[in-house]
Structure to design on (144 residues):
């Protein structure tokens, strides 16, 4: 008779279905980052679900840290643009000298004009090197 009653309560052999209330007395929670409690949104006994906000924390200094990191990012962006501009100027000046060399050798370009181009190329290469990036292939042209 005990087997018959047990079989009547269960849909599957080995599975027991029951209904009721589960009461949890204590749950430990912790914030992902430290801070001071500003507002408590849930009280003891409230129903909560996964993802619910239980409390609001204040993190002193966080705004200053975010502002500092933004300033660093903006400075790095400006520095990158400065280096790219110096590199482009150096490449352009080196190409100008390379194009002018045959003209100077054939007498079409005056020596003073060629020296002006060489000086501009040397200044552009120096600016690039001053940006903290080695000149590499953008060395100042050798004066003839």
């Amino acid at each position: 008779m005990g087997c018959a009653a047990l079989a009547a309560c269960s849909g599957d052999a080995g599975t027991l279905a029951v209904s009721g209330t589960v009461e949890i007395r204590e749950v430990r929670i912790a914030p992902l980052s430290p801070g001071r409690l500003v507002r408590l949104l849930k009280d003891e006994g409230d129903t909560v679900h996964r993802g619910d906000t239980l409390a609001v924390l204040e993190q002193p200094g966080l705004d200053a840290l975010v502002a500092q990191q933004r300033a660093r990012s903006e400075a790095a962006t400006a520095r990158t643009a400065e280096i790219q501009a110096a590199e482009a100027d150096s490449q352009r000046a080196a190409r100008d000298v390379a194009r002018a060399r045959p003209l100077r050798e054939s007498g079409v370009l005056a020596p003073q004009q060629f020296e002006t181009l060489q000086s501009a190329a040397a200044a552009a290469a120096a600016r690039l090197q001053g940006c903290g990036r080695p000149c590499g292939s953008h060395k100042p042209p050798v004066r003839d």
